Amino acid sequence: MSDNPQPYRSLPPKAAAELLRTQDALLFDVRTPPEFESHHIQGAVLLPIQELQTRHPEIPRDSKRPILIVCEHGIRSVHACRALSEAGWTNLINVSGGMAAWMEEGLPFNAKGVA
Length: 115
Known about the structure:
Elements: E1 8-11, H1 13-22, E2 26-29, H2 33-38, E3 39-40, E4 45-46, H3 52-55, E5 67-70, H4 76-86, E6 92-95, H5 98-104, E7 110-111
Parallel strand pairs: 1-6, 2-4, 2-5, 5-6
Antiparallel strand pairs: 3-7
């Protein structure tokens, strides 16, 4: 077993929701604007993966707060976590299964047309 920490880790939606609630975690949604408008987690910052290369300074590089990355199914968020960790970001967490798993777990989210 290596002493080197993982560049990022993955957590299931319920554990991610707990971090948002208890550790004031940051949350970045790497989906497209239409996906985000359709449904998203309250407090998420939209940062489409296609814009990550130019907008990455919006994500704190050495945050003491956990930085959660979410997409629709957990694939784009893994790519974003890998790219950010390779560029020196720390404290990154992929939300496993993305918004699909988040909603399946019955966790709260904002949906278009729903008050």
